[in-house]
């Protein structure tokens, strides 16, 4: 039986917040910030080097 990532995290959080949950949350936040920054850069390619 395959358990999806969100279901695994939810089941881990129900009992207690472990370092694994903290690490997974940190990785997801960092990935989200990187994707958002890249999208902003793609939307404004002419203004990237302007002061």
List the helices and strands and how they pair.
Layout: H1 5-15, H2 19-43
Describe the protein in words.
The protein is mainly alpha-helical and 51 residues long. The protein has one domain (5-44). The protein contains two helices and no strands. The protein has helices at 5-15, 19-43. The mean pLDDT is 82.
What's this model, at a glance?
The protein has 51 residues and is mostly helical. It is 71% helix and 0% strand.
Give keywords:
mainly alpha; 51 residues
Q: What is the structural class?
A: mainly alpha
Mean pLDDT: 82
- First-last Cα distance: 54 Å
> Topology as H/E string?
HH
């Amino acid at each position: 039986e395959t358990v999806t990532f969100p279901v695994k995290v939810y089941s881990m959080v129900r009992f207690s917040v472990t370092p694994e949950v903290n690490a997974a949350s940190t990785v997801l936040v960092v990935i989200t910030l990187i994707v958002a920054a890249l999208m902003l850069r793609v939307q404004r390619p002419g203004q990237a080097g302007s002061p």
